[in-house]
Design a protein that fits this description.
Helix content is 33%, strand content 15%. By secondary structure, it is of the alpha/beta class. The chain has a six-stranded antiparallel sheet with strand order 10-11-12-13-9-14. It has a five-stranded parallel sheet with strand order 6-2-1-7-16, with helices on one face. The chain has a three-stranded antiparallel sheet with strand order 3-5-4.
Length: 442
Amino acid sequence: MSDRAVSVIGGGLAGSEASWRLASAGIPVRLYEMRPRKMTPAHRTGDFAEIVCSNSFGADSVSSPAGILKRELRMLDSLVLRCADAARVPAGKALAVDRDIFSRLVTEALESNPLITILREECDSIPDGPVIIATGPLTSPSLAESIRALAGEEYLSFFDAVAPVVIADSIDMSKAFRRGRWGQEEDYINCPFTREEYEAFHEALVNAERTLPHDFEDSPAWFEGCLPVEVMASRGLDTLRFGPLRPVGLPLPESGTEAWAVSQLRQDNREGTLYNIVGFQTSLRWGEQERVFRMIPGLGEAEFARFGVMHRNIYVNAPAVLDSRLRFRNGREDLFLAGQITGVEGYMESTVMGSVAAMNMEAFLTGKPFPEWPRETAIGSLLHYLGDAVAKRFQPMNVNLGIFPPPEKKIRNKAMRCEWTAARAEEAFLRFLSEITGRAEH
């Protein structure tokens, strides 16, 4: 379809998926991967799509948002998912794989494809010609500087300090209230503590189990502007009350007096379906986050769209710098981003961005219309989030019910809401596939 070879930088999940999809469309690929010539502290092999943190790709049933996303990838005939299914190991309703077999299958598929030329070398600058950048958290410093020059100094992050995000409909507004400090900025939801509630919460927080950094990350030496909430709490019983949980300027609606402490939630997307817990960047284990943060009044039944993380990462501020095609708004029209660097979180989310970038590149090279992903689908919802999130407080996101358009009629039961969302997504995705297949035939 095209004699213009595309340079794909990075042989992780997104780069592998993008390379295979381009080659399947008849487009030659130069795939750059520096391993094994230059290893990273996290990887063990030179295989493509080597996964290093967990062997689980998450839930594999359409009763969950992650399962809806996998269904869409399978409908796109994803290489990564095909290899994952072949390397599957028992894990209940989750999709888990034998890591070595999985990476070997992906590597064999790419190495045997005559349209893919593999270059085992570090790409320290952005090549000329069409390019997909699919580098992950360990992007080389020189290439990162090239990306920074395109994104802008303030729009490229090298460290993920993310507060938990909850779905708005799951907040108990009989215990919480809307008000900005001193009556301003009504996009805040406030969760007031009594003294007894606060002291119980503080004790649970300081004693909760934390994650440990990976061996390749420095031991936590937190800078003061981004302290984990549990580190702040460990400095004294009242530290949080004079920090992110200060109650001043937030009188209780019923009495007009101040609560003992107040946790604020701030609107996280323009649609108002997601709220993040202000000042709660954390290194607690996810199960501990759910246990402890549900002690916040109003969050007893909270649905977490994502948990907080503090880890090494590299990503751009997507709503500020990327267009809807995953290109820099003020950059080259033949340069696309894919994977985690776009501002998504998770194995399958990164893989999806590889597919999207490749399909966008194919459209660009062949002059066909760009794919218009339906908002109702998991992929469309992820892409919508990348443009819809509030740029000044953008956080990477994985697929969750909070980023899908809500039902016209509120469905309180989470399982029923997910089932309804899955049916709507499948219908929209089938229409989408029919449309792009029809364009390909013509």
